[in-house]
Amino acid sequence: MSSRLLALAGSLLFALSAEAAVPVLVIHGGAGVVKADLTPEKAKLVRADLERALEAGYAVLKSGGDSLDAVTKAIVVLEDSPRFNAGKGAVFTHDGHNELDASIMDGATQRAGAVAGLRRIRNPILLARAVMEKSEHVFMVGEGAEAFAKSVGFSFVDPKYFYTEERWQALQKALRTEREQQAEPGKTPHHGTVGAVALDSKGHLAAGTSTGGMTNKRFGRVGDSPIIGAGTYANASCAVSSTGWGEYYIRAVVAHDICARVEYAKTPVAEAAKQVVMDIIPKLGGDGGVIAIDAEGNIATPYNTDGMYRGWVDKDGKVHVALLAE
Ligand code: ASP
């Protein structure tokens, strides 16, 4: 190669790398942290799982991979852990089943995929992604979603796979409380959903969310997590994954509202996320949190509960994990 060509290649490379975004990853494991229940042993295990999820997702970003893959990888780790209300360890319905919901969105193309009411798919986020990539639809539910899963080669797990003693006891407690106090059904919030948002080196954003919903849910109840615009949203300038009392998050269209504030009102992402989580949701009577990121890699993790399991790898590549206000 001539020296002129070499110089040209060099300056091209420089221009490309100068434009490359610095990757950032943010994850959550739910905003239903009850301070009094968080023993040091439990905190240690949760932290280790969050770190593993960050490592899995950030490895993708560091090697120049897509935000969509980073989000998927991180969420699979959290779904496979029994400590979060998603995949293994999902909460139980009133009838003693596990019904799983998930969604994913690609900010660069605004393609999206979502699933709800799954009973036999180990990693709902993978099926949400398959809906996005291998079908012409966005949202599939229940038996239809599982039939689609079969058609694209997913294997099924025995529904018992999702069982954990802790979640089973949580349902028994909710049923007892309901009987004793004749409490209204569906008023036992438990926010343990998982989610991730990422910015990759191409400057593309993505978001994903996966959940078992809420303990003691009935009648095919679906929360915000699989609803594009409520539980998950991503476009070219912002990506959000929610965790909170789904009924309120749907009514406030939380994830899209935050991104709309960033895009149309030019509100900084931290302020936009704070406005929705700390003002709009509590005013409606709900609670929870979100993780959010903008195209410059600025992040926000507001919550209005005791705590939110969360972690991020910032622009310096430093790993952070936090559970309560710390
Ligand atoms: N948002 C979820 C739902 O309502 C619950 C959660 O975040 O833990 O289904």
Q: Bin the strand percentage.
A: 15-25%
Number of discrete domains: 1
The CATH superfamily turns out to be: (Glycosyl)asparaginase
User: Mean pLDDT, rounded to whole units?
Assistant: 93
Please provide a written account of the structure:
With 326 residues, the protein is α+β, with helices and mostly antiparallel strands. 38% of the residues lie in helices and 19% in strands. It has helices at 3-19, 40-62, 67-80, 124-134, 142-151, 165-181, 246-251, 254-264, 269-284, and strands spanning 24-28, 100-106, 111-118, 139-141, 194-199, 205-211, 232-234, 238-244, 288-294, 299-300, 310-313, 319-322. The chain has an eight-stranded mixed β-sheet.
Characteristic terms for this protein:
single chain, 326 residues, alpha+beta, Glutamine Phosphoribosylpyrophosphate, subunit 1, domain 1, eight-stranded mixed beta sheet, four-stranded antiparallel beta sheet, 9 helices
Quick overview:
The chain has 326 residues and is α+β, with helices and mostly antiparallel strands. The chain has helices at residues 3-19, 40-62, 67-80, 124-134, 142-151, 165-181, 246-251, 254-264, 269-284, and strands at residues 24-28, 100-106, 111-118, 139-141, 194-199, 205-211, 232-234, 238-244, 288-294, 299-300, 310-313, 319-322.
How do the helices and strands line up, and which of them pair or pack?
Elements: H1 3-19, E1 24-28, H2 40-62, H3 67-80, E2 100-106, E3 111-118, H4 124-134, E4 139-141, H5 142-151, H6 165-181, E5 194-199, E6 205-211, E7 232-234, E8 238-244, H7 246-251, H8 254-264, H9 269-284, E9 288-294, E10 299-300, E11 310-313, E12 319-322
Parallel strand pairs: 3-4
Antiparallel strand pairs: 1-5, 1-11, 2-3, 2-6, 5-6, 7-8, 8-9, 9-10, 11-12
Helix pairs in contact: 2-3, 3-4, 8-9
Bound molecules: aspartic acid (ASP).
